[in-house]
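Homework-ish question, so no full write-ups if that breaks the rules, but can someone show me the predicted structure for this set?
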Amino acid sequence: MIEFFRRYQVLLSSFSCLLFAVYILGSSSAGRLQADPVGPLLLEVMRPFQSGLNSMVTGISNIKDRYIAVSDLWLENQSLKGRVLELEGKVNQFRETEATNLRLRKLLDLKNQAFARSISATVIANSASTWFQSLTINKGTKQGIRKGMAVISPSGIVGQIWSVAPNGSKVLLVTDHNSGVDVIAQRTRARGIVSGSLDRGPVMEYVTRNENIRAGDRLITSGLDNIFPKGQLVGTVGKVQENSYGLFQDVSVRLAVDPERIEEVLVVSIERSPAKK
Amino acid sequence: MKLFLLFLSVGFLLVLLQTTLLHLLPLGPVVPDLTLILCVYWALNRPTVATVLGSFLMGYTVDVFSSPILGINAFAMSLVFLITYLSSRHIWVRGPLLTAVIVFCAAWVKVFAMVLIWALFFVTKAPWTGALQYVFIEALSAALLAPVLFYLLSWGENRVQKVRSVP
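A: Not a homework solution, just the prediction itself:
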């Protein structure tokens, strides 16, 4: 018996690992995997190295930019870029506020929506795989981050917190095919779900054929998924294709944020406050 | 023990590279799968219980840093290890060209395993629909890097063996 195990130890251990992986998959897909004991540990172990390497890459890139280009112009450019992003974010919010204000004046029970909590974080790593789109940030449970919190930037939404460790978290990007964001077109209030897709890029699904939507329409979060704050810019409609069959239109989306280039994010949770009388 | 620690360190270094530096390459969303190369190396040159567990752990680590579904890469890596190990008993693998071919095929086995798992466990559409071009690029990039990584791993192993043999 012992000789049998010794002779086929590699095969037996391989099959055991395969079965264990299937068990984890089954539990994960059925929602029975409540806690992942190893994942947060791996996040914690890797975080300082990822932070260091990311800082080194950013530092080298910054040195090159600063001394090859004209130093003063670079600094001014960076400052102005930040200011433009900040102002663009404010303009988006003002546009939506104006549109919402006009519409909701005719309705009862106006409720204010505010960020209950917001935590800034830095991106320290990207996805380790081609097939899934995620980021790792340098804040975790110790800083108040919880699974399901929204991750946004001044330009628009980025994703949501998928797993957390004490000092790091994984963000599922909106470009991932597992992601789904409830959106509305700012112009016509047409609703749909924006989800990622590796081959076609982000798409807006479940837009019925009778909805008025066209290229260039701005898409904002509806707030109905209780994850993303309402009115956050998601992107713009790229191309609309009406098929001769089916209930829905094919709508491609150009996201407002390029997840590959993002460096700083804001992690927020939303809370509805009672209407003011 | 020293060899095990070397392999473990290399594994985590490769995951670190996959999550940081390799994203600077102009390959779009494709990230060369260095952990797959390590897994194939282990299956060809060091098929032990420790390296089986190491392959599983590499897949699990990739899951932690990418996939919202735990276990999918762990399964795929374990399957790649098993198939490579079984194949290595019948095929004599030597030389950079054969190494590259083996890794290229292993990349397709990995994607096949992930598609299979997705079809079995999840009702949502798989991310690989229409993504055949990315499979090819990923497999090709892994195959091109394989001879270099194999050489470095082999060199590291020899160094550890020399240190061990010194009285």
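Now go work out the reasoning yourself. Hint: Chain A touches chain B through 53 residues (CB under 8 Å).
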